[in-house]
Batch of 3 targets.
Target 1
Amino acid sequence: MNNFIFNSKEINKIKTKSQKERDFRIKNLNFFNKNGFPNKRQEDWKFSDLREIIYKNFKKLNTKIKNSKIKKIDFIKEFDHNYIIIVNGELHSSNFKFEDKNKIELKIFQNKDFSEENEINPLICLNHALSNSGYSFEIKENYKFKKTVIIYNFFSEDLKDNILNSRNKIKVGKNSEVHTIDFIVNESKYKFLNNVYENLVLDSNAIYKNICIQKDKSLGYFHKFSKNKLLSKSKYSTFIFPSGFKFNKLDLEFNLEGKDSECNLESASFLNKNDHQEIKTKMNHLAPNCKSYQRVKNVLSSDGKGVYQGKIYVKDIAQKTDAYQISKAMILSDNSEFDSKPELEIYADDVKCSHGSTSGNVDQEAIHYLMTRGLDKKESTKLLINGFLNEVIEMIKSNSVKNFVQTKLKKQIHGY
Amino acid sequence: MLEIKDLTASINNRDILKGLNITIKPGELHAIMGPNGSGKSTLANVLSGKDGYKISGLMKYEGNDLKKMSIDERAQKGIFLAFQYPTEIPGVNTSNFLRTSLNKVKKAKGEKEIDSLSFLRILKNRSSELGIDEKILSRQLNVGFSGGEKKKNEILQMKILEPNFIILDETDSGLDIDALKIVANGVNSYRDKKKSFLVITHYQRLLDYIKPDFVHVLSDGKIVKSGCMELAQELEREGYNKVRS
């Protein structure tokens, strides 16, 4: 489909700094134009045929955005926080009133590294070719944030059949700690595709905690590739709650490069009519004594589709690795689908690695029990859905953040 | 309060209850004893309204046709089943659930919903009467509870929801003697002229603590013998086979 081929003139619109950069962008654009959007014949995309999804839902994809104005910013009032505002992938403004500003560097992202290995994911190539916005957020050494940073990701009303390519970089310095919430607010009532490339580095002893959630349901199509590097004794934790997207694929690669580093990923989603969400993780244990834990829980209703592809790789030198992965799905409808592909690739001999995957219907015994206490069938089912997902939310330590997430989740389930 | 005539129940084409008759008046406590597979738990399930059974016969509760009432409607009208194996409900906080449940029952009765502070006061009192550790009330419903904790939690729910007709399905199973006494005290303190009980058990032991007005022997889906406490003692002494014959 010619509509989804991007002309090299698109690159002319970007202010490139060097011939090297231009060559890098052209090379990646050519790769994308040759291969197109990924389809189910590619192993990584076997459960999410993006080509089919794009062809079915878009006639064309424009890079030009009419207007990036947002109507109004509704700040989260439930708890004090710092913020970064991103509009259509571009850094808009920020406020770090609770922090020592000398310890923080936030600027528009500029790529200086054009040496990325030959990428086979066409969406990453497209991002390499066309990305021209995003942020770079760096926390210097020995600094613990006093308050959470909410990254408001706004998508403006004027977005319609657009493709957005942005890239972000987050670096947490030695002995530093930051907690962030990625909060997606979509004002557009039309379809668009958001394609993000993210790079995160945790220096030794650094702690990074993240929550990812959205305000409302959306007609947006989202793809994010995130490459995370964990140095010694660093700790990474993320809670992923988005649901209600037409398409959402989070492709997360973690490289535990330093000894004693830890990575935790938890996800809870309620996927309803026309929702399609895939989480793909690649947990690379590259150093000894590291821990990783992934738990993905999905409730699927109507024709909702959920996918979890999780791979744990343990390098020969990564002895004493402790890795665990579990996915659980509660299936409420005959038309919904959950696909799971766990993989282990282990080259060290003194490791503890396991994985599991379960899917099933609502427990009818539990429904009976709850109904004998006066709740009707719908209320009982909702309570079970909520309970199923709540197991993940309960792991959030801050009560105010936990309540905030619970309210959002209840809203998602409300329509069921 | 409860009138059952010629009740039959089958599941997956297997007949379990085969013409059961029993009438329970307000204030009475009836014990049903019977060997394994005689239909005791099926009777409890059928009375609670559990799906999957094919039923015929008459089942009247306070003059209403029980068969026409859904499970939750029965609960709201005052029927309570204390489960033999209380189901574990992951992710659902025990205390929050009990309040939701109580408010559903109150709403059905046309009463005002209870606020969280008043509820916590009631919950605290009732749980201390049953020797329930308050910590378990903030845990997930029945998840990781010991056998005794689960059974006590059932009696706690009974005392909070204040039903009129209570079915205790093998509440004594899995309880040590101390827990059995506590549970029995809980039941006894709840007995009055308006409340009726159907106590299902294998053993006379429970009936030493909860004195029944009537004892029935259930065998092969029918009540084959009825009597008083002496019948339970006879069963304990002679076994089911002899009493049945």
Note: Chain B has one domain: 2-244.
Target 2
Amino acid sequence: MNPAALYRVSGSIAVIILVLLPLASSEMGGVGPFVLNSYFMHLAITAFFYAILASSWSLLAGYAGQFSFGHMAFMAIGGYTSGLIGKFIRFTTAPSELCTDIPLPGNWWLVVLNIRRVGTIDESCLDMAKAETLPAGTLIVFPPVWASIAMGLVMGAVFGLLVGWLVLRLRSTYLALFTIGFSEILRASISAEIPITEGQSGLELVPLFPAGIMGFSSTSKIPPYYAMLFLFLFAMALMTWLAGSRFGLFVRAIREDEEAAAALGVNIVRYKVLVFVVTSTLAAAAGALQGHYIGIITPNTLIILQMSLVIAMAVIGGLENIYTASVGAIIITFVLELLRTNVEIGPILIDMTLWRLVFFGLLLMLTLRFQRNGLLFPILERISRGGVAEETVSIRVEEEELVEDEAGVDVEAEEEERAASPGNSK
Amino acid sequence: MENAAIFGWALLWILFWGALGGVITPRIYARKDLEISQASFGGAVIGAALGPFSLVPLWLATPKITSRLIGISIALVVGIFIAAFALADPDNLCVANGGFVISQLANGIVIGIIYGLMALGLTLIFSILGVVSFAHGEFYMIGGMVTYFMTAQWIPGVSPVVAILASCVVTFAIGYLFELIFLRPMGSGEIERPTEYAILVTFGLAFFLQYFTQALTSAVPVKAQRFFPFPRVEIPAESGALLTTTPGNVTIFDAISVPNPRFTAAVLALLMLAALLWFLYRTWVGKALRAVSQDRQAAAVTGINPNSMNTLAFSMGAMLAGLSGASLVQVFSWLPQVGIPAAARSFVIIVLGGMGSLPGAFLGGLIVGLVEAAGTGCIPDATRAAAYIPAYGMVILTLVLLLKPTGLFGREL
């Protein structure tokens, strides 16, 4: 079987397994001996969430060579936008008079709430309006979840465009410098603006399907599983298409040599900004969905350490391939959970919640140094080369070239000379 | 704020004419076939300074945009900004109380010296290796942690000098090992795309060091005692009008008050700076370092080993960060996470000063220190002002990237 077909078949099998997986969950009664409890389902959703983040980051970093440390910030922008719309926006059939009313066509009003904190109770102007000015029988409708998630996406794209336009005109180091500061400042302002974002105690979001769907309750894990899986598959399809198109070609040309790409007519700033906007929007989508699924979002989700985790997933899986990055993210999410139990060695208690991250930090550095393409990519390489290791192939090609080359003798002599003095061999 | 509208309109005025000047000036200069390298930046600051009153003459006469013109315009913009703030909020402490302003300025300079020292380490690394170390904040954090644990836990009663030296040794050693194992192969061409590799691997080091420290020390904030309490002095005696010191504070002229920890930290930083300058300009190794930063090949031809200079520069940069952490652990409370805002601030400073410029880093540190002091002192809502400390640096960074990405003394990156 040739490698492309092998990939296609194994990919389809993996997708089918993922789609059928909820049948084995405890909510559905399980299949035969396999019963997946809701904790496992929760882990699977989280794994897809990280897989979207890691693979979109690998499109940005591994394909385009632009290193953003603000990916989690865009994730949080998606989540917070969606949450804030749910908190502050309502639709009514009559003007409230006490809040900011914006008339809409068809006798509807968009109401922007004004929430004051009196003692320990939040007092919203709509509650007061209900008692005073609103006529009886007025409908009050929450904004639909899909619309607020869509707004989260739009905000992610807008911020991506602004940051990208500011920084991507310059060399890639500036993007890394700026995005660290950007996510710090976003974290600081979310923590400080307590009346709007609830600060450290976290902003509550409505469930993904507030009224339940197709017989599943709003707390069931199965609808969110499919929602996140769908987003994951959609993101992978989108990125596969992008990576294979002209766009992907240009973006990789920019990574290899910016000046050369520009000289060949690639508008490098435009393509860098485009890839940054696309990946930031994907991160925002993942953030909004995860926010509605968990039901709360706190500023701690965008600290740099969360970002490091996503980077570690992408790098350990394989940075230069969106599939290895996403598979790496899924595997590492589960491994991190397995490593949660504390270890006792004699009198010393080892707090694994911290040491597992120390371990991943070290693994990240070692992977970068000794196995640049990640730990999964070599396995793929091996399969696609039909069991022949990469080195043998390249040596064979070199030898063939040498034989064909007329000046081959000189080159060979040079090779020998270089091999003889170990200091210059590299 | 009483008349917030005045301030808002002034800000809008500055931004509007600045943007207009920045966009249109280079076009006019290009049409007249004049040099446009400074036109965008110059046009923006000149427009921001006097609006149409300066832009119209500029566009008609199109003089050469000199650094003096730019300097005067920047001074004018700052002046207008301050005047608008004073008009908008006349009761603010920063407007009404001269003593408070001078104290804030003194504190800003004092803290700015230490920021400058930390950024010097980063810019030293960049000028030799061409690498921005994303683990710089973690060296800062480790310097403070080692100093605190030496003085407070492991050897109580040890002299702070010993603890600071120990933190220097530890950070130098970590930097040395890391450079040898992870950055040395970059020079030999063993690693593809070294810039990307360097960004990721130093970030990985930051991740590792931060969790490693947290696993060892737990996440409880710690703070060291004052290192060197002042003796009680009053000059002239009894009244103390010229100089008064208590163990925790020094007051000069009854007006400028600087807390002891900040003062000693700044003195330490100045001593270290003097030592660094002596090392870089008076010793053979220091001259070799500067030679490598100017031209690697030429330096190698004259018998300097660039690889060992890389190692030395990286470990010295790490040590400078560790030293600023060691001197600040008596000022701020310390957590494994303190490195991140500090690192972000150093990035702002080196971009502002110009990547790889040593005087730029020091001057940038002073500017950032002053802006932060002004921000925390002048914003009316005190808790909010403190929460937004990292934001002031980011405003500077955004402006620099928009207007003059090479910074004050930068060479092209």
Note: The two ends of chain B are 42 Å apart (CA to CA).
Target 3
Amino acid sequence: MTTEAKAHELIVSVSPHVRGQETVARIMWTVNLSLLPAFIMSLYYFGPLAAFVTGLCILSAVLAEHIYQTSLKKKSTIGDGSAFLTGFLLGLNLPPSVPFYIPIIGSVIAIVITKLLFGGLGYNVFNPALIGRAFLLISFPKLMTVWSEPTAQFIAMDAKTTATPLGILKEEGLSKLIEIFGDKTDLYMSLLMGNRAGSLGETSVIALLIGAALLLYRGYITWHIPFSFVATVGVMAWAFGGQGGLFTGDPLIHLLSGGLILGAFFMATDYVTCPSIRKGQIIFGIGCGAITMMIRLKGGFPEGVMFAILLMNCFAPLIDRGVKSKKFGAVKEQKK
Amino acid sequence: MSKTATFERGIHPKYHKELAAGKSVTQAHLPQRIVVPLSQHIGAPAKPEVNIGDEVKRGQVIGTTTGFVSSPVHSSISGKVTAISDFPTSVGRMVQSIVIESDGKDESVSFKEHPEYMNLSADEIKAMIKDAGIVGMGGAAFPTNVKLSPPKEKTIDTVIINGAECEPYLTADHRLMVEHPREVVEGLKIIMKSLGVKEGHIGIEENKPDAIEAMKSAVSGEPDIKIWSLEIKYPQGAEKMLIKAIKGREVPSKGLPMDVGVVVQNVGTALAVYEAVRFGKPLIERVVTVTGNGIKEPKNMMVRIGTLMSDVIEQCGGLVDGAVKVISGGPMMGFAQWTLDVPVVKGTSGILVLAEDEYVSSDQYSACIRCGSCIDVCPMGLNPSILSIYSEKGFYEDAKANNLFDCFECGSCAYVCPAKRPMVQFIRLAKSQVKP
């Protein structure tokens, strides 16, 4: 081909002319992948119900986004994996035994109200899955607090109901909780493996940490939010969680139970709704941890991770405004 | 001992240096015709010194300076002036240029040599550099003699030669350091002399071990000059980043290297300075890396200033069938070309041709998902995400309040953006809409 002929087909655009490999879809699908271990453990402990609830959440979330966008003659963005992720996270945040309409309502609220009406991915103020769950908890308080006992049997369709560890801790105290699980080591082991009542995907700490390790390794999340969140919860549980005064609490129980690990690694780290600047993320994480513990210790609910993250979501833009990364050449400028 | 130095943040793009790094510099053919723009530099354009029909020789001045920040231009061949008019240039603007048809003889004017060049005074050196039309050859093309004449209140104590060559693909400076290390060092010494400076540094990215080796042996008898191996990281070769890496000094916001007592010159500029002062040779040719998967035979070539890109590309076997983009300079900060009939100028460090598989479309982008990747990599510590959002919405003043003008458009933010947002384009748009 001659250079003269070729010149007419040249593409002209602004630099840079090369780009990295990362795409929004690749990030979102990797996060979905990282939730698989927790999902598999939920299948193990809660049986086919887990697949039904989670599957229905994902299906409704993806369909809601697709129908909304195509009916408004916009390009459907279900391929980017974010609607799938919202559905997936919502499913993992629901009790095992909810009736079929709960996942559907939750997903539609999460996708349409929380995300799309605000302008779509990137513009939402709140974590969609958590708004979906908060809506459900407030609208259907009874259904959303029926907790099945883990059965580790794939056939059990109507499992016995029980209370979550945090529920027992709140109502009956630590000694009762230890008594139910045997001894303290059994309690910790059960919490670590996920053999306890709770939302589908929150129970298995070990499975969640495996997924989180993938995200940290790939650099999709950094330590700032999860570490500051978890550390704050640990310190506050130790300082204020005990019966015998200050610094007698058992931080491990608080760290391993409830939705802390799921929330800290997978939900508080949602790019859109957390601060973008790393220093700000530490403030965000500490805020999440502090509100979580205030609710757990003093509030009406046994668990506070969801409301803590949602409340801190409100502050994310404010934190980004207040905390600036260190500008190159700024020090000298001030001296002038 | 060399040290590995660097700056904070930055990115690690694929370098693709292997395409041309091993290729020795070859002499390009004598061009049939040259187009010499009268403005190849920052500052006032030169004014024509010849008329249509005039016979000129190689090295003859054909455009003279029109102010302090300006630079003369010379003919790089012998022949006849056939046109003086506006022609397209590689930065996208039409510039008044002088067209010369070669007579094939390549006759040169005589150059005044100075074998005892280290005995020259600072003013004599600066005058020679100015008369030789030397400008920064890393791409910015700022007149070198102006850089060497800082205002009296600025005390310069350090000269740094920039051999980082952090732009992917480009290998022109690399080859110069391997093939002409001694001349580069002499150029640095002349620059140091002209500024009265005792301390010289040469910074080279670690991916050029042969260049580091060559430069080290070239400075073996020079206690005042240090060779630094720098971490392989973009934009290591940006002046501010280089000074931070080597001297630990931060050029203040809106300031210049001279504000922290440093003058930075490119490897190619140092060589040109040596040739101008030692041999009296004006800047009429330069090394150009012709590379990328869209070019048949990647090469490093010594090209006469004014040679058309199409001519250079033909000498490298032409474009491959899947060639989609031709860039003057590197892939991070270079300019995409709409025509290949633009001349190689003093600041043209490379001609990069991207093939379809290397090309990334930026037509499709989505909303910022606030992942913060751009903030993590911005070498200036800015928040590119918020700058792009403000610009997209037309809030240019807000962008300015967020340090818009500290951005030097290195493109790191756009490189890492998963939403594929045209960050640099947004930032340039905002810059064009508000006063600094």
Note: Chain B has a mean pLDDT of 92.
